[in-house]
Amino acid sequence: GRRRKWTTVQARRGHGVTDHAAVGSIIACRMRGGVMGLLEDVKSEAGIVASMRDVSLKQFLFLRNLAEAVIERFGVEGGRVLDAAFVHYGKWRGDTIRMAQGSIIAGHDALSFLANWDSCDLILASLAGAISVEGTGSAAAVHLPRMPGTDYFQSRNGSIEVLQRYWSNTLLGMTAGYDRNLRLSCNDAAPDAPWTIEACYGGAESGT
C-alpha cells in the first residue's frame, strides 16, 4: 500500500506513534461504552469529567498538529495567519459568553466575564490544583495552577510558544466578541508555573 511521508516536525515528535496511540486508546474506550458517543455517560460526575477531558484533548491535539505544521511550512507569514485565526476563534468565544443567560442577567464587567467562562478550562484546572479569583467588576483575575494545554504539549514535546501564542490571541479576540470595554491579558508562564488571566473593564460595573 501507499506509505505516507511525514514532515520534519511530524517525524521529530513521533507523529504516527504517539498521537495514533492516543487516538487508538480513545477508540478502544468508546468501543467499551466509555468516553464519547451514544453510550457516553453524561449523568455521573466521573462521566462528565471524562467527557470534558476528551474535548480538551482534541482541542490541543488539533492545535499542536496544525499550528506547528503551518509555522514550519510558512514561517513568519504562517504565524501571522495563525494569530488572525486565533483572534477570530476568540471573538466567537466572546460572542458565546456575551449571549449566555448568566451574562444577560448579570450584565457586563470583569467578574461577570470570568463567571460565565464558556469552556471546561477552569473546571479541569481546578481538578489539577487550586484556582482562585480575585478583584472587582472593574478589574479581576483568575489564577490557575498552569496554562491550559500545558500537560498535553509537554507530553508530545510540543512548542509551549505555540500554546502561549494561542492563548494571548484568543483572549484578544474574546474582548471583541464580549464587550470592547473589556481588556484581557495573560502572563507568559513557564510550563510548570502558575498562569493568570487578568480582566479589566472600562464601562460601568454591573454590580455582580
Give an overview of the whole structure.
With 208 residues, the chain is of the alpha+beta class. 57% of the residues lie in helices and 11% in strands. The protein has a four-stranded antiparallel sheet with strand order 1-2-4-3. Helix 3 crosses helix 8 (160-178). The N and C termini lie far apart (62 Å).
SSE layout and pairing:
Layout (H helix, E strand, L loop, with lengths): L7 H5 L5 H14 L13 H54 L2 H6 L3 H6 L5 H8 L3 E4 L3 E6 L5 H6 L4 H19 L3 E5 L8 E7 L7
Antiparallel strand pairs: 1-2, 2-4, 3-4
Order of helices and strands: HHHHHHEEHHEE
The side-by-side strand order for the widest beta sheet comes to 1-2-4-3
| Helix content, binned percent | 55-70%
Number of strands: 4
Our estimate of the beta-strand percent is 5-15%
Question: Number of DSSP helices?
Answer: 8
Helices and strands: which structural class?
alpha+beta
Query: Largest sheet, if any?
Result: 4 strands, antiparallel
> What shape does the CA trace take?
globular
What would you report as the Rg, rounded to the nearest angstrom?
19 Å
The mean pLDDT is: 84
